[in-house]
C-alpha cells in the first residue's frame, strides 16, 4: 500500500470565549491557516486535490460548506474543492484520516486536512437547542428514544461516570489540570509553539495586533485556585477548571503522496503509520479512546512503550487519567506541552490542532512515534499514529 506523508501542520493560537478571536469570522480563521500552509511550503497550491474540514457546530456562520467558504476567502485558487464533515470532537482528526486514506488509495496526491470552530460565534449545542426551542424537532427520533429512553447523551454525565468507574478523585483531577497549565506555560515561554502557531490579525481597543499566544493558559495557576472552582453539579467533581476550555481556533495539516513529494520537491516531516476509528458505549461515551488505542496498537503491531509521545485530548481530566491507567502509559510522554484544559478545545478544529502540537513536540524531543486520540460524541474515538521523519 502507498504511504501518506505529513509535510506541514499549523494552528492558530486559541482564543477564549468572547476573547481575542471573538471578532474574527470562522471563515477567516480557516483562511488564515490555509494561507499559512501555502506560504510556508514551496509548491503550486493549484495541485491541492481537495480540502477536508472538520466542524461540529455547523450553523449560522459555520454553514454552507465552511471549508469551501474558507478556501474562497483565502489566497488559494478558487478551483480547489472542499467538504465539511462532523465526527463531533474528532472531526478534524477524521478529516486528516480521510486525507491519508485518499492518498494511500492512490486517488489523490495532495489533500489539506483542517478544522475550524468559533465557539464564541456559534456556541456549543446551539444548532440543536435553537431547533428544539422553536418546536422544530429533536435530534432524538422515536426509535432512538426507544433504544435509549430518557438519555440525553451528555458528555458531562459521561465524564462523571468515568470518575466513578475508575475510582478517581477531585484532588487527582485538579492536580492533573494544574500540570496541564504548567506544561503549556513552560512550552509557551520556551517558544515550543512558535513553529506551529499562525498569527491572526485582530482588532483591539488599542488598534490592530497579532494574536499568537494561547489565551487560555493560566501562567499563575495554583492548585488552590483550581480546587476552589465550584463543581458543575452538586453531586459531581467536574468543574470548569478540570475540563477543557471553550475555544475559538483553526488548524490544518498538509498530507501528500510519495509522488507529490517528488513532483513538488517537498520534504516530509512524518509518515502516517496507522489510522483507525472505533465506537462503543454512547452513554459513558468518553471512555472509547482507551479501547480504540488498545485496538490500534494491536493492529499496528506495537506496544504503548513503542510510542514516544501521546496526545490525548483533555476534554475532561478523567479521560487522559483513565487512558493512562488502562494502558499503563507514562504521564511523562502525555500531552507534554499541555492540553485542552490549558490550551482550549475548539471542537472540530482540535484534531489537526493536536497533530500540529504532537509533530512539533516529536521533532523537539527527537522522538520517532507519536499517537493521537480523543473522545467523541456518540462513544467514538479516532486513533492516528505517525512516524517522525525529519
TrEMBL record:
> Can you tell which superkingdom this protein's organism belongs to?
Bacteria
Q: Which EC class is the enzyme in?
A: transferase
Would the keyword Protease turn up in this protein's UniProt record? no
Going by the UniProt record, its keywords in alphabetical order are:
Acyltransferase, Transferase
- Quote the EC number: 2.3.1.16
- Extract the GO molecular function terms from the UniProt entry: acetyl-CoA C-acyltransferase activity
Q: Which Gene3D superfamilies match?
A: 3.40.47.10
Start and end residues of each Thiolase C-terminal domain: 267-388
Show the SUPFAM superfamilies listed in the entry: Thiolase-like (SSF53901)
Q: Does the keyword Signal apply?
A: no
Locate the active site: 89 (acyl-thioester intermediate), 345 (proton acceptor), 375 (proton acceptor)
Thiolase N-terminal domain sequence ranges: 5-259
Q: Which family does it belong to?
A: Belongs to the thiolase-like superfamily. Thiolase family.
* Name of the featured protein: Acetyl-CoA C-acyltransferase
Its taxonomic placement starts with:
Bacteria, Pseudomonadati, Pseudomonadota, Alphaproteobacteria, Sphingomonadales
